[in-house]
Design goal:
- The chain has about 80 residues and is mainly beta.
- The chain has a domain at about 1-55.
- The protein has one helix at about 50-55; strands at about 1-5, 10-15, 20-30, 35-40, 45.
- A three-stranded antiparallel sheet has the order 2-3-4, with no helix packed on it.
- Strand 3 (about 20-30) and strand 4 (about 35-40) form a beta hairpin.
- The radius of gyration is 14 Å and the shape is globular.
Length: about 80
């Protein structure tokens, strides 16, 4: 997957740690567990053609989180509305 610039980007993180840099959009969401106005960060990723083919053939999309504690995450396609 290639990092894309998310619509409404508010900041880029990771460059000072030596990573490529990840454009983020900060937003507040209503969460069924944590309630209204929960801070969230959204990034955008563009799959490469060979990844699209694997997705179309039924292979799963994996999310890798660095570290030993897993934060709450959400995956979606297109608009987050």
């Amino acid at each position: 997957m290639n990092i894309a610039t998310v619509e409404g980007c508010t900041r880029v993180i990771g460059e000072s740690q030596g990573y490529i840099g990840l454009p983020l959009r900060d937003e507040l969401i209503n969460c069924a567990v944590d309630g209204p106005a929960v801070s969230a960060m959204v990034s955008a990723w563009q799959p490469m053609p060979e990844e699209i083919a694997r997705i179309m053939s039924g292979e799963p999309i994996h999310l890798r989180v660095l570290g030993t504690a897993h934060p709450p995450v959400m995956l979606f396609v297109g608009s987050s509305e």
